[in-house]
């Protein structure tokens, strides 16, 4: 009877040890998850044009009276640069 109780106590200790190891691993993985979520939150998603996508039009020598801006001027004004 005594050896049976000892065996049960040994198994219980092994199970408790395994549970503690699993809890530590879960805490470690939660830390990694939070770090990855933090990195993902800082990512910038950029739209990429496909091969057949229409490219912006611009003229190299705009004519007087033509109110269309060159591609560079449009980009610069969008970013707040002065020309």
Can you describe this structure?
- It is rod-shaped and about 85 Å long.
- It contains 2 helices and no strands.
- The chain has a domain of 45 residues.
- Helix content is 58%, strand content 0%.
- It is mainly α and 83 residues long.
- The model has no long low-confidence stretch (mean pLDDT 74).
- Keywords: Coiled coil.
Features:
0% strand; single chain; rod-shaped; mainly alpha; 83 residues; coiled coil; 2 helices
Work out the number of β strands: 0
Radius of gyration: 33 Å
What is the count of helical runs?
Answer: 2
Summed over residues and divided by their number, the pLDDT gives a mean of 74
* Protein structure class: mainly alpha
The unreliable regions are: none
Q: Which overall shape is indicated by the principal axes computed on the Cα atoms?
A: rod-shaped
Strand content: under 5%
How would you spell out the order of helices and strands?
A: HH
Q: Biggest β-sheet: count, sense, barrel?
A: none
Helix content: 55-70%
SSE blueprint:
Blueprint: H1 2-41, H2 71-78
Coiled coil: 5-46
Keywords: Coiled coil
Task: Describe the structure in brief.
The protein is an all-alpha fold.
